[in-house]
């Protein structure tokens, strides 16, 4: 179990939970996250024990093998680290973490050829890996040069969109017949006769009444005489 005086309570609780699960079921794959928790807090010896036990149940588990190789390197056991990490890269040539540790181990023991192979594997995957590039230069004796220029992404300009606005059709002027002044001059001018406007019936009726009244007055005057 984890000691709460060395790590924070939440991490200690997680380690205890995972350790209990592995103790109850030795075939549980919880051994790998348990080892990761030990590694996070620098408990390398505990991590090594958990990984070794787990690999007995799951031999060839590459992720656990790579983790154990790292732990062996931290514990100062280069022979064990190199042996298990070489097995890792045989199965997974693209495991860059294993290549990184191997390059350091090979370089430390003076095996330049194998160190260059691991550096090259890393740089093939990531040409901008400064650590691998520096190690390769130190092995080959190449002077430091400027870092490789990063590729610039081509900016593809957006193609102008076609103008979808509807163009109004040209306005066709209404047809207007042309009239020449000569034709107007040759046309005969019609004289207009003004007809008298007939009086409305009401006016005629009033005039008749007036004449009738005048006639009656004349008759009455004759009778008086």
Description of the molecule:
The chain has 225 residues and is mainly alpha-helical. The chain has a domain at 9-140: Serine Threonine Protein Phosphatase 5, Tetratricopeptide repeat. Helix content is 60%, strand content 0%. The protein is built from 10 helices and no strands. Helix 4 packs antiparallel against helix 5 and helix 5 (78-91) crosses helix 6 (96-108). It is elongated and about 170 Å long. It holds the Pfam family TPR_19. Residues 137-201 are annotated as: Disordered.
Throw out a few tags for this protein.
Serine Threonine Protein Phosphatase 5, Tetratricopeptide repeat, 60% helix
Spell out the blueprint of helices and strands.
Blueprint: H1 9-24, H2 31-40, H3 44-57, H4 62-74, H5 78-91, H6 96-108, H7 112-125, H8 130-140, H9 181-186, H10 201-224
Helix pairs in contact: 1-2, 2-3, 3-4, 4-5, 5-6, 6-7, 7-8
| Percentage of β-strand residues | under 5%
Helical content band = 55-70%
**Helix count, DSSP H or I runs of 4 or more residues:** 10
CATH superfamily of the domain at 9-140: Tetratricopeptide repeat domain
Q: Report the CATH topology name of the domain at 9-140.
A: Serine Threonine Protein Phosphatase 5, Tetratricopeptide repeat
Note the run of SSEs as H and E. HHHHHHHHHH
| CATH-derived architecture of the domain at 9-140 | Alpha Horseshoe
What is the residue-averaged pLDDT?
Answer: 79
Helix/strand structural class: mainly alpha
The rounded Rg comes to 57 Å
Sum up the overall morphology in one term: elongated
Low-confidence stretches: 151-158, 175-194
Largest sheet: none
End-to-end Cα distance, whole Å, is 163 Å
């Amino acid at each position: 179990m984890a000691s709460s005086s060395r790590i924070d309570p939440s991490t200690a609780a997680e380690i205890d939970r995972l350790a209990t699960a592995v103790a109850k079921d030795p075939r549980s794959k919880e051994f790998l996250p348990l080892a990761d928790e030990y590694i996070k807090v620098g408990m390398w010896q505990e991590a090594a024990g958990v990984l070794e036990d787990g690999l007995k149940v799951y031999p060839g588990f590459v992720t656990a093998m790579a983790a154990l190789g790292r732990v062996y390197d931290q514990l100062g056991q280069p022979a064990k680290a190199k042996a298990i990490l070489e097995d890792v890269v045989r199965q997974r040539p693209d495991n860059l973490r294993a290549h990184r540790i191997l390059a350091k181990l090979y370089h430390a023991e003076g095996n330049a050829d194998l160190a260059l192979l691991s550096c090259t594997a890393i740089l093939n995957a990531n040409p901008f890996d400064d650590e691998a590039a520096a190690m390769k230069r130190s092995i080959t004796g190449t002077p430091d040069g400027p870092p490789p220029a990063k590729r610039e992404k081509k900016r593809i300009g957006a193609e102008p969109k076609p103008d979808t606005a509807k163009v109004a059709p040209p306005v066709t002027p209404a047809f207007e017949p042309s009239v020449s002044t000569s034709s107007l001059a040759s046309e005969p001018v019609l004289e207009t006769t003004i007809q008298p406007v007939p009086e409305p019936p009401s006016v005629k009726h009033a005039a008749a009444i007036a004449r009738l009244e005048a006639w009656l007055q004349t008759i009455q005057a004759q009778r008086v005489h």
